[in-house]
Amino acid sequence: xxxxxxxxxxxxxxxxxxxxxxxxxxxxxxxxxxxxxxxxxxxxxxxxxxxxxxxxxxxxxxxxxxxxxxxxxxxxxxxxxxxxxxxxxxxxxxxxxxxxxxxxxxxxxxxxxxxxxxxxxxxxxxxxxxxxxxxxxxxxxxxxxxxxxxxxxxxxxxxxxxxxxxxxxxxxxxxxxxxxxxxxxxxxxxxxxxxxxxxxxxxxxxxxxxxxxxxxxxxxxxxxxxxxxxxxxxxxxxxxxxxxxxxxxxxxxxxxxxxxxxxxxx
Length: 266
Prior knowledge:
Elements: E1 3-8, E2 11-16, H1 27-42, E3 48-53, H2 64-68, E4 104-108, E5 111-113, H3 115-122, E6 125-129, E7 133-135, H4 149-157, H5 159-168, E8 172-173, H6 174-180, E9 185-187, H7 192-204, H8 208-220, H9 226-242, H10 245-254
Parallel strand pairs: 2-3, 3-4, 4-6, 5-7, 6-9
Antiparallel strand pairs: 1-2, 7-8
């Protein structure tokens, strides 16, 4: 198996395990990653996912040796502009085109480059080790970004920073990644997964329906005009209100819990 799956209470940890290839993704690995995150999304007992790699590396991108041998993942033909987009359409790197209903955190040690960077961008947040290296290293091989890199990178860090990375293919260290907004947290070397797990467990403690709908509204607004995005936010908010989480939360506040910035448990 090239993908390991571990569960820690309500958190699912998915690890790419191809240390001899710096966790580069071939066809089998892409499909295994897609299967793992599809199962995570469908499991009502799991609230937050973590994507990471073994042996001190996150992911070196697509396995170009496998691609050259015809063993890469099939780059499923994306829909034409205007067609409906399949929220679980498998990409060359696996789940890179998925729109899940739950958050996923990337725990990055070592290199997250080329398609590996695209997998990190697919995640909602990124915890990187202090020795992490991120970049569009596929620039030197003429391999395009087709797992969301040209879409998510500009949206995440702005057009100027994104063009710098996309055009030059240069490496970015942890501090610069945080400055750009590419990294959310920096962890000591070897502790990225530990810090990502702590973050995931924090997210697990919040009212889930409200958090998930706010997340989806933030993701969906990119493709909508302002008025439609605002209406979509209200629609998502109604789902949370119907679940009565807001009423319960207000009652907790009125009873004196969670005041002064305290994040007491549900």
